[in-house]
Design a protein that fits this description.
Blueprint (H helix, E strand, L loop, with lengths): L5 H16 L4 H7 L4 H12 L18 H19 L5 H18 L8 H12 L3 E5 L6 E5 L17 H12 L5 H16 L1
Antiparallel strand pairs: 1-2
Helix pairs in contact: 1-3, 4-5, 4-8
Bound molecules: zinc ion.
Pfam family, one: FlhC
Protein name: Flagellar transcriptional regulator FlhC
Keywords: Activator, Bacterial flagellum biogenesis, Cell projection, Cilium, Cytoplasm, DNA-binding, Flagellum, Metal-binding, Transcription, Transcription regulation, Zinc
Length: 198
Amino acid sequence: MADKSLVTEMHQVQMAIELIELGARLQVLETETDLSRARLIKLYKEVRGMSPPKGMLPFSTDWFITWLPNIHSSLFYNIYQRLVEDHGCERMEAFVRAFKLYLEQLALEEAEPVLGLTRAWTLIRFFESNLLELCKCTGCSGHYVVHAHTPSRDFVCGICQPPSRAGKTRKRRAEVKDSPKAAAADDRASQLLVKRRA
Ligand SMILES: [Zn+2]
């Protein structure tokens, strides 16, 4: 810490503030910056006006595969990948930009975001650990988040083959809680993803 340049430290503080504003949990900040836990907690309190929540980060890859989260996760990851691969963005810069673009897209479509910042970060980490990968849908040619080693030959995405209405309602109740715009959001997010890949 002692020999770290002031400029580097300032950049890290700026990034931490941006991440906190976007909803990052403390673990994200601790992993992605060299700032001490004490400083991060102080920063968090200043930015959010409250102590950071305690508890573990979401841990399972399964959430990203369920229907609505999968559509949102796929949309976000496609944006992120494009920023890294096509625009040469550095990893965390791409992450923050992709998350903002994801929120902007949904706001334009008046759809509710399903993917929080910490979830989005977990998603990137799962890809980096090769637990998740993208798979091309044989129906719409969009690229969707799947578990690693999912057979890709006959893969059909959740937009081309939505679950039955009963399953959808039950799932949505569990995942989106009481969002009144959820139904419209689903459809719009679906259209969005297909549009983006077209
Ligand atoms: Zn499809």
